[in-house]
Amino acid sequence: MKNPNNLYKFEEELNKQGYKYICGVDEAGRGPLAAGVLACACILNRNIIIEGIDDSKRLSKKKREQLEKLIKQEAIAFAYGYVNEREIDKINIYQASKLAMKRAIEALKIKPDYLLVDAMTIDLEVSQSNLIKGDMRSASIAAASILAKVKRDEIMDKFAKIYPNYGFHKHKGYPTKIHLENIMKFKPCKIHRKSYKPVKNALLIQQRLELGGQND
Known about the structure:
Layout: H1 9-16, E1 22-28, E2 37-43, H2 61-74, E3 77-83, H3 85-91, H4 93-106, E4 114-118, E5 128-131, H5 139-162, H6 168-171, H7 177-186, H8 197-215
Parallel strand pairs: 1-4, 4-5
Antiparallel strand pairs: 1-2, 2-3
Helix pairs in contact: 2-5, 3-4
């Protein structure tokens, strides 16, 4: 059965070449100012077409959550990899995204024989393709993007209860106007990425205010 958007073309071609466990890999959370980056590795069942699958950013929250349940039900295997904000500050977000992807792949219960990765090359001895805008071109990557996005949103909803001043449940840590205002008002919290410019600037301003107060 063919997918109408032809999102399975890479998987179908690789199947013809003899690859059995084709794994899509994507991440969520490169842009936020808070918390970590989360990646997902997903091996879809080659005999099942999941209708409606697409880049997670092009789907509504309701549709993502519906598809997430279906993907988990039908996938052969999936796993997550997480790199927290402290690691991001040490190694930068690009390297952190690669590390999260690597951790997700290594956590799979079934070892993939081919990787389809969204815009990155992973340091693993596995055959792979680096696909620009892969979440719009490959069903496996799109599935991974959906699982990663839903999972990371759940993590941010939990952080919203721990750190209620920042509205994490609304913006998921992205640099919205209200988030930036709250960082300045309440100063950065434990999970903010201290190497990111808006957070770094807020810390510098806070330090100056504290030093100014000490000099009064």
